[in-house]
Amino acid sequence: MIRFMLVLTALLALTSLAALIANLPGTVSIAVPGHMIDMPLTVLLGSVLALILGALAIWVSAHWLWHLPLQLRRARLARNRKEGEAALAGGLMALARGDAQAADAATKLARRKMPHQPLPLLMAAQAALLDGRRDDAAANYQAMLGDRQPPQQISLGLEGLYHLARAENDADAAGTYALQVLEVDAKSSWALEGLMTLAVQIGDWPAAEKWLRRWSRSGVGRAVVKQRRAILALAEAQSLLVEDNPAAQMEAVKKAEYAAALDPKLIPATALAAQLLARAGNMRRARKVLKQAWQKAPHAILAQAWLDCHSDQPAAGRIRAVGRFIGKHRAHEEAALLRARIALAARRFRQAANLLSPLAEGPCQSRRLCLLMAEIELGLEHETQAQLWREKARRAPAEDGWRGGGLRLDEWQPICPVTGRLGGVSWGRSAPDGKLLTAQ
């Protein structure tokens, strides 16, 4: 609409100017060698105006013809980009449904339409990985590198090569790729975290601390940094256990207590500290550490550590001590299970049954509860009831435990064995949809 109004205004101005020129009186005489030209003033002004308009028309036409190839190229690039984005969308859907062939065909089309964009190369690499062609994926990542490529694209290519190397357990190559990324982006969070993980994997604790300090300056929150530092301390404490000397054991205790202080939710740190203190004969301090952690949040790992620290006591002594230990959390499920285990060890089957009866009558019966009830019924010589509880245990949902990348683990580990991520192991259970439900 605005363009139409401008054209209409220009036409009105030209018409008014022509009418003004047509009504001008007088003549003009032009003397040239040997000739005298007489003409009306209106003819002269009209000729000059026509020449100006003709020159403008020629200039506009020449300008349009000069830029025509550029306009055609831009239109072609826009059309290719539109078709390439549509192909990428189709490739993403193919990857989501696991169709490697369709994803590969879509990414090939996208690469033809957008040869200088990094996303088609990333899609091609993912399609190759889905199809099991790691060499092709590596070739696509390598194609993203080069002196003339933008830094972001180089970083993406090196990140892909890094994860390929980690998947093949090639720590040297993975570390090289991560260091190359830091040459492009000195604050690359994933590269610093990857180098920190590799340092933990090989037990180079000074290097792990160095990369942690640099990683903490890459924009991550303080709480996350504290959690990661706690994981490093606990991992170092675990590594010291293989050294059979008192100095290493005491250093492991300090590291474990430091990790527990940094992150109280890191239960394995508290359990390990108590275990090492008990092994060193400092039972009072070990039990105090466990009680303080239990008062904050009861946990199955703390209950097992308490049993280990009281293994030297008679059954009657443990029954008295556990009452002081559970404190205000007497109604907690873990407290009931712990007291029942102690009663079972003392062969007080009726007492154990009374402790577990509120849980046994509830709708959510865990596998541990069912097995304990089966043991109780067997001790009471109720064979039929014991068999029924065993059947319930087989149908009961999986117990809470250490999980990483969907895999159940026997114990906590600093590095997830599935994803290779530092801190990727947590306590919980798998939901029906495969996601991890964290148990607090």
Structural overview:
The chain has 19 helices and 6 strands. The chain has 440 residues and is an alpha+beta fold. Strands 4-3-5-6 form a 4-stranded antiparallel sheet, with no helix packed on it. The chain has a two-stranded antiparallel sheet with strand order 1-2. The chain has helices at residues 2-22, 41-97, 100-113, 118-130, 134-143, 151-167, 171-184, 189-202, 205-216, 222-240, 246-262, 267-279, 283-296, 300-309, 315-326, 333-345, 349-360, 367-379, 383-395, and strands at residues 27-32, 35-40, 401-404, 407-409, 426-430, 436-438. Among the domains are: 335-397; 400-440, no CATH class. Strand 1 and strand 2 form a beta hairpin. Helices cover 70% and strands 6% of the residues. The model is unreliable at 431-440 (pLDDT under 50).
List the helices and strands and how they pair.
Elements: H1 2-22, E1 27-32, E2 35-40, H2 41-97, H3 100-113, H4 118-130, H5 134-143, H6 151-167, H7 171-184, H8 189-202, H9 205-216, H10 222-240, H11 246-262, H12 267-279, H13 283-296, H14 300-309, H15 315-326, H16 333-345, H17 349-360, H18 367-379, H19 383-395, E3 401-404, E4 407-409, E5 426-430, E6 436-438
Antiparallel strand pairs: 1-2, 3-4, 3-5, 5-6
Helix pairs in contact: 2-3, 2-4, 3-4, 4-5, 5-6, 6-7, 7-8, 8-9, 9-10, 10-11, 11-12, 12-13, 12-14, 13-14, 14-16, 15-16, 16-17, 16-18, 17-18, 18-19
> Which structural category fits the helices and strands?
alpha+beta
Beta-strand residue fraction: 5-15%
Characterize the biggest β-sheet. Answer: 4 strands, antiparallel
Q: Would you identify the regions where 5 or more consecutive residues have pLDDT less than 50?
A: 431-440
The main sheet orders its strands as: 4-3-5-6
Separation, N- and C-terminal Cα atoms: 64 Å
- Mean pLDDT, to the nearest integer, reads 82
Kindly state the percentage of residues in helix: over 70%
- C-alpha geometry: elongated
Number of helices: 19
Q: C-alpha Rg, in Å?
A: 39 Å
- Quick one: how many beta strands? 6
Q: How do the SSEs run, as a string of H and E?
A: HEEHHHHHHHHHHHHHHHHHHEEEE
